[in-house]
Amino acid sequence: MIDLAAPSAATQAAPLPFEPDRRSAVGPAVVGGLLVCALAAALIVLLPGSGALLAVGLVVGTPVLAGAAFLLHRRPWLAAWGAVLLFSTTAELRLRVDPMVGVLKDLYVGLLVVLVVLWVRRQPSALRRLRPLAFPLTALALLVGLYLLDPAGSHGTSWQFGTRLLVQVLALLMVGMLLAPARTLEHLVAALCVVLPFEAVFAWIQQLAGPAALIYRWGYQYGAQVRSTSTGGVRTSGSFEDPFQLAALAVLGLALALFVARRRQAVVLIVSGLAVLGATSVRTALVQVGLLLVIWAVRRGWAREAAALAAVAAVAGVLILATTTSSLYPGAPEEPLLFSLNGRSTSWSLAVDGWKSLVTGNGVGARGTGSTRTSTAVSGPPRYDPTAAPPPAFAGNPAFLDSSYAQVQSDVGIVGSVALLAALAGTAVFVVRRCRDRTDGAAWAAGGVLAISLVDWIGRSSLASYTTGFLTLYILGVLLGATRTQERTA
Amino acid sequence: MIRRRILSAPRWAAFLLVALFTVAGAGAGWAVEHARGPQWQASTDVLVRFWSVESFLLSGQSTPVSSADVADAATLASSRDVLDRAAIRLGHGRTGSDLATEVVVTPSATSNAVSIAATETDAATARKTSEAVAAAMIAALQDRITASSHGLTGVNSDFQTQLQQRVEVLDKSVHPLIALATSDPQQTAPTTKSLIAFAIVGLAAGTLLVVAVRFTRPTVEEARVAQRLVERPAVPFALSGDSPEAARLVRRLLDDRPSGSVLVVPVDAEAEKTADAFADWARTRSSDAAEATRLVSSPEPAGAVLSPRPGPAEVAAVLLVVPRGTTRRALGDAMTLLGSWRSADAVVVAS
């Protein structure tokens, strides 16, 4: 007889997966309330000047934040509302309320990360479902490791800024994938159906007000919230920091409208998205919309027609770009758009400064992500001169690499670039496989968002940026998570 | 077989590969540092206070310095004209092209200044070179102003006077470019910085390689992976160990299906020896000779399907033997092929 090991012990009754937690919250709430009161009292005593105001803020704000955190803990899919509303209004709130409002986004991301940890502890299967994305996630983890170690640079303020931004956007990607993505996607579309029309109306009100009123009366800055096109047109930004961020939100809204939104939601998103694109006049956004339409046509079964049209459009685009000249700013000499990419090609060459720079990079924050971290103690008076270029805060600065790929190369070198490209390729493979099912709208939307991001990152430093990077990676995460959820429930 | 050995290499082999890359990176960094010999770097900042000199000379109008102007100033500083001038100032028979490899000019991201960094074999020369390039840059702009004013011939005397006044304003008052302090020279080689940087790059490259190999050719490393892939019971088996789970599986198959043979099928031709070893192990563990004969070795799936097949009643169960490190695709192919005749009932992952 074959040796037989002793039979396993009788299985014990497993606990219910969602056994309600009956522990009372009264005790912790009382302790927390007492702590907040003690802190408020300490602020009043220790800071005679501003202590009272801070104490009031603490006493009022803490219960609100605690309530919001509790609500998100119980209904994590509502996180989409918080993300869309907060990320899209921070710039305006910083201008109107207090610059410290900007910290809210960091707190919110931190809160979402904590919620994800709790969610994964409660539902370990959520983490296991990430297995098909193990390769891209591992490659991204390697990229984060390189940013943390920073082979060629030092660990100064620029490093902190650049690394924090990258870690935050990747954390939002994970949050999107893990935190109840299927239900979150419904709320995400609904939140965009509220925010995008508001932004469209707001941006066109700004257009009607005119640049002089916006700068001298509304308090906006020329070169930030108000920008000009090379032909002298005005770009408005709604409640965002600059028009490019608003255009990015519109393109994301269009991606959701084409692939996952219901009919009425799609109409709202498309109309408001096009209105936003009209107010922002961002050329790259038009290319991204074209790309979305090609993907939409492929999904509808018009792959050959779409490929032919895309090829014709690509050839026509190259011809137009080759024959179009553009000035970097009003009054600057005209240059061919194809070869200068609006001045970007000059700055991109700074990403690689010799073979050593190619291998190890120039250091995080040297020329890439984080290099624009500046603090302005005293701001100048409002200024608007449509015949002169505004001082570029980010894009347009000759020492700033206006490309996400070039930034990563400059920050951490060739291995970081390969890791990023491998992660993107792995994600693309995952999405393409899921897109074999044409009814999987989330997969197609993920493909659309990934495609427009790949294009956007060529000419913009939007990967590790607030707000575009935050919103894009969060939405991409939700879509990837919803794709897998659909697969699981099929 | 060799590929399978590579793929099934234990985890320590992956760690070894990563360590090898790290050491190689560190070695490369050390070589880079010492191949260059001692190097010192000094930098001189030049503040761009005014740049639109031509428009000022012609119209008297001034415009604030923009970041594009600072970039243009950096281009001027690294131009052949400026470097030739600096080489003449430095002497020692050096040329502008020699300096081009030693001087890097970077426009500041946060101020209207350019930084001229010179790298030399000693501290004093590095300081002199960066200061010489800064001085040559200022002189070049000065000559440009003079040349612009002299180039305007045939204008009336009033304008000539205004022009001269503007030149003097630029020369004596405005000072479009001002050389700020030169930093203390820093030794840039040999240091441990490159060694550490290259070691980190090696570590990352090795890790990326291991991860890529692991994910681009996914293999069956554990029984639970095989179980998840084929949705059949899978157990581990080690030739050198007791393998109680494998013993329990075989026992259960023999007891639950008392008639017919248990076919032991290798996942592919390369796994035949492993499958034979497993079948022998199972037979030797049985004290009942009749029962041991029920365990029958079979050729690989293609052979099992093509060869004269026993009738359904003659086969109690089919056990698929998968050596650890087998690609998941091979496992899938075997399952598909066997499915045309009789699906495997369980999988044994052998190591």
Here the CATH topology of the largest domain in chain B equals Alpha-Beta Plaits
Mean residue pLDDT of chain B: 86
Radius of gyration from the alpha-carbon trace of chain B, in angstroms: 39 Å
Please, what is the average pLDDT of chain A? 84
Note the run of SSEs of chain B as H and E. HHEHHHHEEHHEEHHEHEHHEHEHE
Low-confidence stretches of chain B: none
Structural class of chain B: alpha/beta
Describe this structure in words.
The complex is a heterodimer of chains A (490) and B (351). Chain A is mostly helical. Chain A folds into 2 domains: 35-74, no CATH class; 118-373 and 385-489, no CATH class. Helix content of chain A is 65%, strand content 2%. Chain A contains 19 helices and 4 strands. In chain A, the strands form 2 sheets. Chain A has a two-stranded antiparallel ribbon with strand order 1-2. Chain A has a two-stranded antiparallel ribbon with strand order 3-4. In chain A, helix 10 (243-259) runs antiparallel to helix 18. Chain A starts with 25 loop residues before the first helix and ends with a helix. In chain B, 55% of the residues lie in helices and 17% in strands. In chain B, the strands form 2 sheets. In chain B, strands 1, 2, 3, 4 and 5 form a 5-stranded antiparallel β-sheet that branches. Chain B has a 5-stranded parallel β-sheet with strand order 6-10-9-7-8. The longest helix of chain B has 29 residues, at 123-151. In chain B, strand 2 and strand 3 (113-120) form a beta hairpin. Chain B has 3 domains: 1-35 and 190-217, no CATH class; 38-184, Alpha-Beta Plaits (2-Layer Sandwich); 223-350, no CATH class. In chain B, 36% of the residues are buried. With 351 residues, chain B is α/β, with parallel strands linked by helices. Chain B has 15 helices and 10 strands.
